[in-house]
Amino acid sequence: MTFPLDPPADLENADVLRAHDWQAFSEVDLMQNHWDRPGWLEGRRTYHWMLSFHDDQAVQDLAGQCQAELLRPDFDPVPLDALHLTVGRVAFTDETARATVGRLVEIAKLKCKPLAPFALDVGPLAGSRGALRFTVAPWLPLLELHRTLAEATHDVFGGADRMHTKDFRPHLSIAYCNQTVPVPDLLPLVSRLRALRPAETSVEAVSLVELRRDGRTYRYDELARLDLAGR
After folding, report:
1. What InterPro entries does the annotation carry (predicted)?
2. Is the pTM of this model over 0.70?
3. Which percentage of the chain shows pLDDT scores above 90?
């Protein structure tokens, strides 16, 4: 389910985006088990569009600082070498021919070529019903990227109820909830961590990955990297 349900009033202003995420999380009563997800059978994998931060030291440092304060049995930290921003799910691998994936990559490369790299601020910490996660700002270039990849995906797969940009809420999760947790009990801790300075990074490429679940964590293998060339 889309969270927050309503988008922020301003898609570029970092202060507005951060306040919107925090307000939405503060209004949640209970976090739920993120891993209780339909369709995810043991060993099943998916194709996803992602932004990977496995080699971004600034983002990893901020995530690591927060995770060090979140050593609790009710949360599963995201490995620092698996930090990612999910742009959209394409399909389950067992329902998709590899030739179809290859065609998708070629179409997406052409569509993404005019997109330029862009700066992105990661943080501060907020949350959703199933994860503690960083606000990211601004949203406009992320929405443009999502819209472009959604067009490519729809060209190959059709609609099939996937990748609707109106439902995209960019974020970067750092810890997944594995049981029911009262949010009011968490707010003082998360509020303190919000004082940490956001990380500054840049987005220069998007990846198509094969995503899998290893216990209570996500791991993925990059299948294709699409550089944003701006030309």
Report:
1. Cyclic_Pdiesterase
2. yes
3. 89
Q: How many domains does the chain have?
A: 1
Q: What is the pLDDT of residues 194-225, one digit of tens each?
A: 999 999 999 999 999 999 999 899 999 999 99
Alpha-carbon distance values, 108 to 43, 91, 98, 160, 229 (Å): 27, 15, 15, 18, 13
Confidence of residue 108 (pLDDT cuts 50, 70, 90): very high
Tokens found for residue 217: 């964590």
The DSSP element (H or E) to which 227 belongs, if any, is strand 218-227
pLDDT band at 40 (very low <50, low <70, confident <90, very high): confident
Contact by Cβ (8 Å): 67, 174? yes
Q: Position 144: which residue type? A: E
CATH code at position 145 = 3.90.1140.10
Q: Domain containing 96: what range?
A: 32-227
- Could you tell me which residues are beta bridge partners of residue 88? 49
In-domain check, residue 27: no
Amino acid making up residue 184: P
